[in-house]
Amino acid sequence: DPYSLRCMPQVHGASRDVLTHVAQLVEIECNAATDNPLAFYDDGALEIISGGNFHGQPVAMASDYMGLGLAELANISERRIEQLVNPSLSSGLPPFLAPASGLNSGFMIAQVTAAALVSENKCLVHPASADSIPSSANREDHVSMGTIAARQARKIAGHLEIVLAIEFLCAAQGLHLRRPLRANPGIEAAVSVIRTQVEPLDEDRILHHDIEAVRVLLHDGAIVHAVEDAVGPLA
């Protein structure tokens, strides 16, 4: 099997570890004193100490790290989409998952959309925290660029949701074309939730609405909850 299938635990697990680490670091920073100066009051005495706790480097680097972890999930997801839509790789499924391929383009453009978002992520994943530019008469001579890193990570997360939604749609279509065969209870539960919002693609239609509907199901956790109801906790 291709690595995008065989190595899912290794790649997904690495990204999951990234998110765990980032969550821990951000929680520490949210509960830390990050102002300047700091005021210490002890035994009736007040001491004012100037320092650098305001520097955003911890969160900046964490944001860059998070962006990398999310971008890799999108990368491997897009490769699995290719496995589904490419007739040379999909073990007998029709080209682009279109029942009447040639007359219909199926999920061809959806895969192009996923590829475009993954390519944009490769630009966004450039570490913002590697940059710094002096300001304030060179007093602020090294800065974290943390807000840029955070905005990039947030945009990558949005792209990831769309790519995953496309993969879910393609996988559900593949199962539709394999009927009456059935998958395991967890997968069937996920497909059932998708089918409450999106019908199988029997002929071409605008896919934007389908992609957005599944993206919302992913974002709100509806698919995860359905799978956990069927097979138990995933974490």
The overall strand count is 2
Q: What general outline do the C-alpha atoms trace?
A: elongated
Strand content: under 5%
Sequence of secondary-structure elements: HHEEHHHHHH
Number of helices: 8
Sheet with the most strands, sense and barrel status: 2 strands, antiparallel
Q: From the alpha carbons, calculate the radius of gyration and give it in angstroms.
A: 23 Å
> Termini distance?
25 Å
List the strand order in the largest sheet.
1-2
Low-confidence parts lasting 5 or more residues at pLDDT below 50? none
The amount of helix comes to 55-70%
Judged by helices, strands and strand pairing, the structural class is mainly alpha
Q: Look at the structure and give the mean pLDDT.
A: 96
Task: Identify the notable features of this structure and list them briefly.
single chain; 235 residues; mainly alpha; two-stranded antiparallel sheet; 59% helix; elongated
